[in-house]
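Exercise 3.2. Students should predict the tertiary structure of the chain below and write it as structure tokens, then compare their answer with the key that follows.

Predict this chain's 3D structure.
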Amino acid sequence: MIPEGPDAPVCHSGETGTFTRMCGFAVAIDWPEADATVAGLIQGILHRGDITDPLFSPLPNVAMCTRRLRIVDAEHGAQPQISFYGRLAVSFNGEIYNHAALRRELEDLGVGFKTSSDTEVLANALQVWGYRALERLNGMYAFVAVDLTNGEFLAARVPFGVKPLYVMQSGKGFLFCSEMRPLLATVPEGDVMLLPPGYALSRKNCARFKSPIYPRADAPVDNSPAALDAILREAVRVRLPPDLPVATLFSGGIDSTLVAHYTRDFRPEAPGYFVGGVDAPDYRYATAYAEKTGYDLRMVPFDPASDAAFAMIDDVVAYTESFEPNLIRGAVCSLAASEHMHRDGFRVALCGEGADELFCGYAPLEVAFNESVAEGQPVRDDVLGLMHRVSLQRVDRCSMRYQVETREPFLDPAVVNYALNLEAPALVRELNGMPTGKMPLRDLYNLYPGQLPSSIRDRTKIPFGEGAGLDVSESGSAWKRRFEAAISDADLAEGRREFVGFKVQSKEELHYLRKLAATFDVSRVPHLRDRAWISVPVMQHLEKLKARAYFSL
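Answer key:
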């Protein structure tokens, strides 16, 4: 199925059109009792869609099944999709935004299609181009393709890891699922591994594949607000569902306001969902945009000091399959927003994830890039490499829990490559004596003074949860006081011994980790010990980071 050659993987431990929204799957290859095992896995991801496609068993000990969120082309989008001449079967989660262009190219080569599904485009692209088809994909995806002639397979996950994919291996057998808990519940022994973002796995090899992401240019890109304006508008356009309403996750921050702005160019009626109350730090910025433009701003009540908010932790930890504080805090807010979008009938939403990582919205990036690209680039690579463990894992799990598919325009290859090739002075400038990032995005506000408030352009970064009112400062945090009251110093010490290897840093982390350990055996998930921390040169930039009120690992 996948051509071998010098560029084959080796193992380490847009256009609008008709899509089929594939939101969770399970695949067994050379696995005993494959049918029963896959059927059990699907029962664990029912929340990721509204219909279970028929279980497909093309070969002995091979089974494939999908839990699908029907949005468009529901009748013909059933999975797996089969390539022409019936050679490949593909189980797929995500979207291929440039599927229409790929379809035309394949049709010019004589390939016929039976559906309008982007999954069928992927299946045919893999049959025609092999693993090099991955170099052509603009989308968010995780998939497993099985060669029905010999039982070989290829699994791959998009760079940045917008969509999840986990795997267990036993002898020659492989078992895949879109979430961890079903694997742990179905198979009594063995570790659950994640397929790293931007990696392809076959029976013989596992390594990073070439993609449209990260082809850094030899010559830097000149910062041009007009050019970025066009690039970002197109990234939003290709992510809008052609026949469905769309919403935005809106905080009144620089990034979510730009996403709302471009979305409303095509869908003026698209609402924004704001999490928090009138006392939330982000509220005045969100209302500034709404009052200036007539934006349909929908409030999602959230009181971080309430018992109800604290009680959400159990669900958030279980749904996100994580105990990372930076994920859990934001996920409490994301889950509330997704629930309200679902109630209002939305199945597709857009958000601003990726902008801070790419355009230097975080203090460590501002400080590093203020020194030089050589200082900043490793830090940014580190931050981008952790998105699949924090912000993108939060987005996927919280939105899919309520059958909402959230898309990230800032992770479009054109936007990514523009940002990665900018010189450091274009990204970060000193304002009022402090290095300030996201300057290319701030400059876009000057193009639309009648629509984009200068107060948002000039604001500083506040993490999503904190902007909604969830104060996690060292002093005055009602959220942190709950953990202090619930866990003694002696209990923290005992917890660190209980979970040795997980590098528990605080009572808050221990609380989350204990909740997670109550839902599955965390010792069987090795990557949880590899904490989602950035490797910031703390001592080198300590005073500058303190000045930016940032000192968190």
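Discussion points: The radius of gyration is 23 Å. Residues 325-343 form the longest helix (19 residues).
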